[in-house]
Design goal:
4-stranded mixed β-sheet; alpha/beta; 2-enoyl-CoA Hydratase, Chain A, domain 1; single chain; 265 residues; 6-stranded mixed β-sheet
Length: 265
């Protein structure tokens, strides 16, 4: 479990089966400080360990930005020294790994700017629902940097040459183009964003948590595998899944024409 961060910069609340994690720095367009990254890791750890949580929604406070990326004024090299700063920069990579291994679906609610590391953070979620006001970009090149760790969620979310174009040019794309490129799942009118996010979260929460975990884990496990290795892994996962109580309940409910009663086992 990460060290306890500044609780005011990352808000965490659970309502029913949905955990909501909010970056709470609207005055800085929800830019990521060291404390924010640690707060996100703490919040995702909590969501992953609380059995009542079935879905995680990630967003930013206010109306202007989901996350504007790293706070360049506060995340440079400091008195801790070069190696300590280098290790701290790796916390974003650890956050991405943590999100992918969470075992529960994650949903980005993007209401405005999602830039640089903020774009990477949104695309590290399983699904992205965006307002028609949302904007995405990886403009690190414009300040003499490169979106190194952000590369992974970008190339996993769109054709690699499109990801490279955005990184090479720093070009900002709107929500409609983002949906066309495939890294946004749904674009809605700004005033319909919360309803769309809530509806998607409710749909995800209604599924078997046991099968959701097994299937989602398998999806990420085979991402970079060769086809033969992936098929062998998925073959074994199918047999494992059929041994769960939820699989038996789902088949019984289908045959009996009723709604399933999931136990998560």
């Amino acid at each position: 479990m990460p060290d306890a961060p500044d609780a005011s910069e990352v808000l965490y609340e659970v309502s029913g089966a949905v955990a909501r994690i909010t970056i709470n720095r609207p005055e800085r367009r929800n830019a990521m400080s060291w404390s924010v990254v640690e707060g996100l890791r703490q919040a995702f750890w909590s969501a992953g360990t609380e059995p009542e949580v079935r879905v995680v929604v990630l967003t930013g406070a206010g109306d202007a930005a989901f996350c504007a990326g790293a706070d360049l004024g506060g995340m440079g090299g400091g008195s801790e020294g070069f190696l300590a700063t280098h290790r701290s920069r790796g916390d974003l990579a650890e956050l991405f790994r943590q999100m992918w291994s969470l075992g529960k679906p994650t949903l980005a609610r993007v209401q405005g700017w999602a830039m640089a590391g903020g774009m990477g953070l949104a695309l590290a979620c399983d699904l992205v629902v965006a307002s028609d006001r949302a904007r995405f970009g990886a403009p690190e090149i414009d300040v003499g940097l490169w979106p190194y760790m952000v590369t992974v969620p970008l190339v996993r979310s769109m054709p690699p040459k499109k990801a490279l174009e955005l990184m090479l040019t720093g070009r900002v794309v709107d929500a409609q183009e983002a949906e066309h490129l495939g890294f946004v799942n749904q674009v809605v009118a700004h005033d319909q964003l919360d309803r769309a996010v809530d509806d998607t979260a409710a749909t995800l929460a209604s599924k078997s948590p046991a099968v959701m975990r097994l299937g989602r884990d398998a999806f990420y496990a085979v991402w970079d595998m060769a086809a033969e290795e992936a098929l062998a892994h998925l073959h074994a996962m199918l047999t494992l899944t059929t041994q769960t109580e939820d699989a038996a309940e789902g088949i019984a409910a289908f045959m009996e024409k009723r709604s399933p009663r999931w136990t998560g086992r």
